[in-house]
């Protein structure tokens, strides 16, 4: 009898653990506890009709974006609510790049392999093109080789 209760409890733990893992890693989605959407482990934007949606904020050094009431918490204390797994559609800082596109219309400076906090936005009707050497260009200049096909920076 005790073995079946232990097995039931073990199964319950496995189910709850898998739900927690499924809940983590949700990026670019407004969170109920703090009304922000984490764009990656360290960047977020506010979910408010009164704030421009393209404004990206960065957690202080060594803090990660969470779905808790306190938006940024010390790294290692809790898991970030948005996984750092890249979707492969945008370049990353590789230690050799000075700037990288972080969305179709934004770019950021690299500090080694990390992005700096300042997000720079292209002028209206321009898209990011670091490879062109002009930073932002008309869409017709890049053709079908868009460097980053993301709506907003991560």
List keywords for this structure.
3-stranded antiparallel beta sheet, signal, 10 strands, single chain, 2 domains
Residues in β-strands, percent: 15-25%
Tell me the series of helices and strands, N- to C-terminal. HEEEEEEEEEEH
Our count of helices gives 2
**Main sheet: strands, sense, barrel:** 3 strands, antiparallel
Mean pLDDT: 78
Number of DSSP strands? 10
How far is the N terminus from the C terminus? 51 Å
Give the overall shape, derived from the CA principal axes: globular
Q: How much helix, percentage-wise, in residues? A: 10-25%
What structural class do helix, strand and pairing data support? alpha+beta
* Integer-rounded radius of gyration: 19 Å
Strand order of the largest sheet: 1-2-3
Return the domain count: 2
Short description:
The chain has 154 residues and is of the alpha+beta class.
Describe this structure in words.
Keywords: Signal. Residues 1-25 form the signal peptide. The structure is a single chain. The chain has helices at residues 2-23, 139-142; strands at 36-38, 43-46, 57-58, 63-65, 72-74, 99-101, 106-111, 114-121, 127-129, 135-137. With 154 residues, the chain is of the alpha+beta class. It has two domains: 25-85, no CATH class; 86-154, no CATH class. It has a three-stranded antiparallel β-sheet, with no helix packed on it. Strands 6-7-8 form a three-stranded antiparallel β-sheet, with no helix packed on it.
